[in-house]
Amino acid sequence: MPILSYSYPQSLTSEIFVDPGAIELSILANYYGREIAAYDIQITRCDLYGQENKYLERVMLVYDGLHYDAFAMSPFDGTPEEFDQTIFSVRSDRTIEPV
Question: What are the alphabetically sorted keywords of the record (predicted)?
Answer without folding.
Answer: Cytoplasm, Hydrolase, Protease, Thiol protease, Ubl conjugation pathway
